[in-house]
Amino acid sequence: MRWSQKGSTVLNNLRMLIQLTNEWKLILLVIRKSPLTTAGLVIVSGFVILGIVGPYATLHDPIMISVTGALKRLHPPCLEHPFGTDEYGRDLFSRVLYGARVSLVAALSVMVIAVPIGVLLGLCSGYYGGIVDEVIMRITDIFLSFPGLVLAIALSASLGAGLTSAIIALAVVWWPGYVRVIRAQVLVVKEMLFVEAARAIGVKTSKILFRHILPNSITPLLVLITFDFGSVILANSALSFIGLGAQPPIPEWGRLIADGRRWFPDKWWYSFFPGLAILITVLGFNLLGDGIRDMMDPRYRRSIEMKG
Amino acid sequence: MKKILEVKDLRVHFYTYNGTVKAVDGVSFEVYEGEVLCIVGETGCGKSVTARAITKMIRSPGKIVGGRVLFNGIDILELDEDQLSSIRGKTITYVYQDPSAALDPLYTAGYHVAETVTAHSVGMRIREALRRAVEIFHEILIPDPENRVKSYPHELSGGMKQRVVIATAVANYPKLIIADEPTTALDVTIQAQILDLLKELKGRYGSSVVMITHNLGVVAEMCDRVIVMYAGKIVEKAHTERLFENPLHPYTKGLLNAVPNPYRKTMRLESIPGVVPDMINVPEGCRFRPRCPFATNACLIEPELIEAEKDHYVSCWLTSKVGQQ
Questions:
Q1: What is d(CA A92, CA B181) in angstroms, rounded to the nearest whole number?
Q2: Contact state of B104 with A199 under an 8 Å Cβ cutoff
Q3: CB < 8 Å to B81, chain A
Q4: Is the pLDDT of residue A308 over 50?
Q5: Does residue A10 lie in a domain region?
Q6: Is residue A49 in some structural domain?
Q7: Nearest to A202 among B60, B88, B165 (CB)
Q8: ipTM for the whole complex
Q9: Which residue of B has its CA nearest to A200?
Q10: DSSP H or E stretch at residue A307
Q11: Of A194, A197, A206, which is closest to residue A127 (Cα–Cα)?
Q12: Which residues of B touch A196 (CB under 8 A)?
């Protein structure tokens, strides 16, 4: 009896401790309480690490065709070649690893171009309103009125096949989404009293935008960026699948799937493993995006804390 | 006494889908150096809009359509945005009604003060300004200022937040503090503290205060002169004692009767019948006519604001008739 009372106070103290913890501890809590988010985080960090060190960690050259390799054309998965080999005897495991870097570079570049454009236009559009808003939003609508991938294909094809043109094409397709998200947030945040208060103490408009409005609108942007990382990887693979985007001999996942089609389903491993890589990576980003949204949004966060 | 602010025939309209709302319709008043001027009135009578219009803080769909705001002889309404931001927060500052909303949740209490300081002194770093914030916190009696500057708004109580807002308002020793219902969101004991603080700061920095409130207790406690507004117009303007002793406008009388009086035994508290008029279709003539117990046919013509006795202005036909007799 006594002991169980003691036990419950200990439990209460623990609960209070959890409530008193700061954001970082909350993140740790989410990781413990939400295995899916953790899985997403693990996959994404694995992807990023492989993208950085992968090409140096492979036993076989992912690009060069070796003389001895020619003897092992389309070899099924074995200990030496866990993903098998392609028609030139190159190790598919090394090629898929190298592909992670291509995808990482592509997704990062698209974000680095598209996010600042979207944020800047979204801030101006939402804050100034009126004619500025009208012009920016109608231009955005023009871009959104095309199906994204079709526009990307058209642009990429007209710029000439290659990773750079694929990145440019995808960035052109992706920025309007950010304009919309930021604008919607700014419309809410700019009506808040602290924005007026900042204006009333003589803070310049640019500072109000970047110090007060943007930081307070960042949550949905972070979530969207995480989700879009996966989508860009998918779209980039789609581009290279149809022959645009990164050109051989650079291994790109979409390209590998396309190359493997000739031998499918006989030599299944050729298309299967790059496809699996895409699946897992995109899934990882989506799971992480869900987790971030749950953490940032108090309405969802409550449900996590209740569970915890 | 020297006039520091003179508002002449200020008109602010809001263009809504239902029509034009004349929120402030020809308001004139002046603020003297070192005084506290109160603007009283019901919700929606144009008090806050008047206050915001003083530094051109009206945003779309609102528009200042007429009038002049002379501050030390300069017409503020003719300044551009750059010149305005050098006045806002430096010579004219605001204290807001809801301190929880007036502070950015992402920044510390000290940062808010530091931001005001850096906005008006070229080349000053945030770190130096933070030191200044500690000084100001010390001056306005925030306990443990060194640690409080590092607190985020959610870590502070309502009264403490309002002190931080006041700290941002007085950081640059302003000439004029516009306090828009500074105590409405606070509980009664804190209200008194905040009013005392404002009074003390006003004395210490020699600032004038325009206090917007609907609380007549605050008026009696704080103000030198009172303006009573109704439906976008000034209906009465007087020294505080005169207004309480001899209210001339039926609306002012109604307001005073609606305050519970502990010395008089009454079963029911009086109220002013009716509601604030629809500001899109304002009543013809005197705007208080539909609710006024003394309304006559004369009230179909709009009365002017006239001086009924020395420094006591009222806009009512009743008084002017009394004056004629």
A1: 71
A2: no
A3: 205
A4: no
A5: no
A6: yes
A7: B88
A8: 0.84
A9: B88
A10: helix A298-307
A11: A206
A12: 57, 96
Give the rounded distance of the alpha carbon of A93 from its chain centre: 23
Tell me whether residue A6 is in a domain: no
Contact A96, A251 (CB under 8 A): yes
Residue pair B189/B195 in contact (Cβ under 8 Å)? The answer is no
CATH code of residue A138: 1.10.3720.10
The parent domain of residue A295 ranges over: 34-72+81-307
Residues of B in contact with A193 (CB under 8 A): 96, 98, 101-102
Q: Do A129 and B57 touch (CB under 8 A)?
A: no
Query: Are the CB atoms for A247 and A162 separated by under 8 Å?
Result: yes
- For residues B32 and B2, the answer to whether their CB atoms sit within 8 Å is yes
3-state secondary structure (DSSP) of residue A112:
helix
- A277 inside domain: yes
- Which helix (H) or strand (E) segment holds residue B178: the answer is strand B176-180
Q: Are B88 and B55 contacting, i.e. CB atoms less than 8 angstroms apart? A: yes
Among the listed residues B187, B143, B203, B142, the one whose alpha carbon sits nearest the alpha carbon of residue B167: B142
pTM of the full structure: 0.80
Q: pLDDT tens across A204-261, in order?
A: 888 899 999 999 888 889 889 999 999 999 999 999 998 888 888 888 898 888 888 8
| Counted domains in chain A | 1
Q: Which amino acid is at A221?
A: L
Asked if B116 reaches chain A (Cβ–Cβ under 8 Å), the answer is yes
**Distance from C-alpha of B164 to C-alpha of B94, rounded to nearest angstrom:** 12
The whole-angstrom distance between residue A86's C-alpha and the CA centroid of its chain comes to 29
Q: Do A201 and B88 touch (CB under 8 A)?
A: yes
